Amino acid sequence: MASYKIVTYDAGQGARAGIVVNDTVFDVAEGTGNAKDVSVKALLIDWANAKGRLKALADKPKGAGHKLSGVKLLPPVPDPIGIFCAGANYTDHVAEMARAHGTPMEPDPHTLGLKSWHFLKTAGTLAGANETVHLPRRSKKLDWEVELVAVIGKKATDVPLDKALDYIAGYTIGNDLSARDAGVRPGIPVGSPFRNDWVAHKCFDQSCPLGPWIVPAEDLKDPQNLKIQLYVNGVLKQDSNTSAMIFNIAEQISHLSEKLTLHPGDLVLTGTPAGVGTPRNEFLQPGDTVRCHIEGIGDLENPLD
């Protein structure tokens, strides 16, 4: 059975769902003969059935196809209802940020009876693979954060922990770009409820590069044991493993589904490891190129201006 990856691509006819087989992109709707398969969101809404159609198409591709290098890749899910980003979810990252801020290392939140927590990004923050990201000029301290992203494949409410991974259609790569100098409102004292500004910090345009594709969940044998890395201009900055998560992927899906309903196409960014720029006072500049790598998925690269 041929392996495949799911993309949203534009070869001159607007955004369409495609599958990548051996560096060739095949249009899904044309290949399956199902007009509803025109978008990745539609595939995810019908994931229980759509994955069978995708497997059949990967085994016997139909249509001329397009060379992968000749199409524009858009965010693989360009229209999620929710983008949920795990806060402080790698042991090595929590330790480095504690050192940077001169604060004591927090205990494992499991020992305190705590559950995972997430903040939100909007669909307007998404950027595709190889898309030039325009840095917000109001920020001088723009940081990088490579993250494994779980793509939800069916409606999830109050999901038990042992069933949580069944709700994931696949995985992709995200870069949670963060304006560190915009997250605190100037002149507001510590402890004030008006001090933090998560929108300015995390939700500026193009602050969530995503892609280049979705790898079906069944093709990643163990999402909790993947090498995760980030390079700036070819220099390795983050180098860890998804095994270093504090709350694993299943816990995050289960905990989120207790608070709200997750929908097909929703994205869960599962946290970033050590190696961000803040502790070394090093930040992104126009002209930089960021490359995120996750084992079993590939590379997400974006130039900056």
What does this structure look like?
17% of the residues lie in helices and 29% in strands. The radius of gyration is 19 Å and the shape is globular. The protein has helices at 28-32, 40-45, 47-59, 91-101, 198-202, 249-259; strands spanning 5-10, 16-21, 24-27, 66-67, 72-74, 83-86, 118-121, 126-127, 142-143, 146-152, 168-175, 178-179, 208-216, 227-232, 235-241, 267-269, 289-294, 298-303. The model has no long low-confidence stretch (mean pLDDT 96). The chain is built from 6 helices and 18 strands. With 305 residues, the protein is an alpha+beta fold. A hairpin with a 2-residue loop joins strand 14 (227-232) and strand 15.
In N-to-C order, the SSE pattern is EEEHHHEEEHEEEEEEHEEEHEEE
- In order across it, which strands form the biggest sheet? 7-6-16-10-11-13-8
How many helices? The count is 6
Q: Which oligomeric state applies?
A: single chain
Proportion of strand residues: 25-35%
The fold-level CATH name of the largest domain is Fumarylacetoacetate hydrolase, domain 2
What is the CATH superfamily of the largest domain? Answer: Fumarylacetoacetase-like, C-terminal domain
Level-1 CATH class name of the largest domain: Alpha Beta
**What is the mean predicted local confidence, pLDDT?**
96
Report the biggest beta sheet as strand number plus sense, adding barrel if it closes. Answer: 7 strands, mixed
